Amino acid sequence: MQFLVTADPTNVRHVFTSNFANYPKGPEFEEIFDILGGGIFTADGESWRRQRAKAQLLMSGAPFRAFVSRYNRDKVGSALLPLLAHFAGTGEAFDLQDVFLRLTFDTTTTMVFGVDPGCLSVGLPEVPFARAMDDAMHVLLLRHVIPMTWWKLARRLGIGWERTMATAWRTIDQFVADTIARRRAEKARGGIEGSADLLSSYINDDDEEEGTTTVDAFLRDTTINLMLAGRDTTGSALSWFFYLLKQNPRVVARILQELESVKGTSSAPDGMVAFDPDELGRLPYLHAALCESLRLYPPVPQELKEAAAGDVLPSGHEVRAGDKVLVWVYAMGRMEDVGAAGCGTCRRTGSCPSTRGPAPASARTWRSCSSRPRRPPWCGTWRWRRCPGTSWSPSCPSYST
Ligand code: HEM
Questions:
Q1: 3-state helix vs strand vs coil in the chain, percent to 5
Q2: Is pTM beyond 0.70 here?
Q3: N or C: which end of the chain has fewer CB within 10 A?
Q4: Which residue among 111, 398, 399 has the greatest number of ligand 1 atoms within 8 angstroms of its CB, and so is best to mutate?
Q5: Which tens digits make up the pLDDT trace of 88-125?
């Protein structure tokens, strides 16, 4: 078995688009991520296609988007700002990444299950479900570096980190089972049509099969997959973004200047401001700075595929059935050639918030930056050249198009 690592955009396009059917995630991936069951992250083929279509349908719907938007705004105003004010008042040092991960745990759990676990509050409480998710993620990471025979033996014997995994798994399953049962009971009592969280939407959509174990197992796998998809990605994106802001006061000044234009319509509890997500759509510099941060520190830095049949990559490298292909997103975002290909027509998400700033044509598309190369604010060595015609965009269903 060969292990190929690539950051070549033509190979990436080949693996993810032109010859997608030949590059499933593969059985080993499914074994490592056993806790995810048959959910979207481990699924391949027809099962993946159906799950993806359903997730996209529910997540792009107006009720869900309005719910997420309203909840996030309220959460910032009622939990994040008071907690930051508390730390500012006491002068206590705190871990900003922990705060962001607590924030995104609450927001993702609410988005997926319609339940706010309250991780983000003064005193930083330990919530069993959150702890279990953290433990499970940690063990999933270890399984990538420990030889498979070792961790499988540990799992069979119930020792070491695999024991932690088994405990975490039970806690997670209990939380999910209780929440599904409660939601079904609510539905029986009077309906949950008004609830826009994803679990309620799936239950509402599955009327004819309601109550069968298949559906409960599907709901369990789906919700756990969505938790994994939404929480750490957003928490990591926020952490890196603020890390970069700390190093780039000039960018902070530009963002604050841009935010001045929407300050008037926002409320200000304790002298701090929480913005409505709708207002933030009109802030091209902030948007570009976030994209730039995602380029430099992508929350999903690599993706693993396994060739189903022999093939030749556009770079000329031969792939045999069973070979692994690791797409190194992190490296790709830092390759000058890739940046050059993405700018010009600027259809790449990580576009450059240059001094004058390009005009966003839509949430994911950037119009020409003019013929003059520009520099992103925190990448001194990055050079941008005109090179129209290439596009690359992430395919996470939570992105709006
Ligand atoms: C900064 C935040 C996020 C980033 C950077 C991100 C990035 C990604 C990436 C790179 C993929 C893999 C795409 C592929 O293999 O084609 C992915 C998949 C996915 N994401 Fe996100 N994501 C984010 C937030 C979210 C949120 C909030 C949700 C919703 C709960 C979500 C749901 C999903 C799902 C369901 C998939 C699986 C798609 C599939 O296999 O087809 N993501 N995401």
A1: 60, 5, 35
A2: yes
A3: C
A4: 398
A5: 999 999 999 999 999 999 999 999 999 999 999 999 99
